[in-house]
Amino acid sequence: MRVLVVEDDPRLSELLLRTLRAEGLLADAVATGALALDAAQGTAYDVVILDVGLPDTDGFAVCAEFRHREMWAPVLMLTARTAVGDRVAGLDAGADDYLAKPFAIEELLARLRALGRRGPVSRAPVLCVGDLRLNPATHEAWRGEVPVDLSPRELALLEAFMRHPGQVLSRETLLDQAWPMAGAQRSNVVEVYVRYLREKIDRPFGVASLENVRGAGYRLRRDGGA
């Protein structure tokens, strides 16, 4: 696995390089957002470790630019910011996971292994299922030609369904896809947001695209309910 470390703190950057290389991984390090974009453009990295606080920009902007340039390597964001709003900003920018400083090296390695197994996911500019359309890059959704106003978490959940039309997705799978920071949390967040989605993409249009599969999870109909 090849890893790009984007970190402007030289001590932390060196520690991460030594640790990753000791684990048998190929690792490169840069200290600015501009250098990160150049490096990722020229090398196929399996995972990017991206610090939020960089001297020339912030990690949110760098991650968003990765996705704009269609570079889909999983991104693990590192930051001293722990506010929920900052975590949401990172995930909405296209990050795949989020680790707050200070962190345990063992946890970072575990998250890297998980992201490496997931691998890059090629993301079509616009997803289409029946007459449902979603543009993950611009956070826009439509039912037919009618725009549907969705929150960032509703968009993430809809994207998870639209990438797997006709498939039953368990509650745990949906948590992993739309709430990667939820961990082992076992609240009713999935049920609540499925209800929110139905209120926006189904009921106003007189359709039923999201189906409950008893004891298994939820499924988006292949025809999108059209």
TrEMBL record:
Coiled coil: none annotated. It comes from the Bacteria. Residues 124-222 form the OmpR/PhoB-type domain. Residues 124-222 bind DNA. Signal peptide: none annotated. PROSITE patterns: OMPR_PHOB, RESPONSE_REGULATORY. The modification 4-aspartylphosphate is found at residue 51. Pfam families: Response_reg (PF00072), Trans_reg_C (PF00486). The keyword Glycoprotein does not apply. Residues 2-116 form the Response regulatory domain. SMART domains: REC, Trans_reg_C. Keywords: DNA-binding, Phosphoprotein. This is Response regulator transcription factor. It comes from Paraconexibacter antarcticus.
